[in-house]
Amino acid sequence: MSGTPFWDLVARRAARIPDAPALIQAARLAAWVGDVRITPRFRTPLERELSS
User: Fold this and answer.
1) What's phi and psi for 28, nearest 5 deg?
2) Phi, psi of 11, rounded to the nearest 5 degrees
3) Would 24 be classed as within a structural domain?
4) In this structure, is residue 18 part of a structural domain?
5) Staple 47 to which of 1, 13, 35, 43, CB 3.0 to 4.6 Å?
6) What angle is formed at CA 41 by the lines to CA 20 and CA 38, rounded to 5 degrees?
7) Is residue 42 helix, strand or coil?
8) Would you state the pLDDT for residue 49?
9) What is the pLDDT of residue 1?
10) How many structural domains comprise the chain?
11) pLDDT level of residue 2 (50, 70, 90 thresholds)
12) Is there a domain that residue 25 lies in?
């Protein structure tokens, strides 16, 4: 945890959820990335299947 009140709140609430570590990491990543869009370099298998 970074020690900020926000992350303390997230950790307390997420501790009651089975997937808490993943949710905390997802929240951190979303805060870090912000509004930036990330485009994969190669098409995903699902995208290839849908386009064929």
Assistant:
1) -65, -45
2) -65, -40
3) yes
4) yes
5) 43
6) 45
7) coil
8) 92
9) 46
10) 1
11) low
12) yes
Domain housing 29: 1-35
Distances (CA, A) of 25 to 2, 9, 32, 34, 37: 12, 14, 10, 14, 18
For 40, the token pair is 């994969």
pTM above 0.70, yes or no: no
Q: Is residue 42 part of a domain?
A: no
Task: Give the pair of three-digit tokens for residue 34.
Answer: 């912000």
User: SS3 helix, strand, coil % of the chain, rounded to 5?
Assistant: 60, 0, 40
Query: Tens digit of pLDDT for each residue in 4-51?
Result: 788 778 777 777 777 778 878 888 888 888 888 888 888 889 988 998
7 with 1: CB under 8 angstroms?
Answer: yes
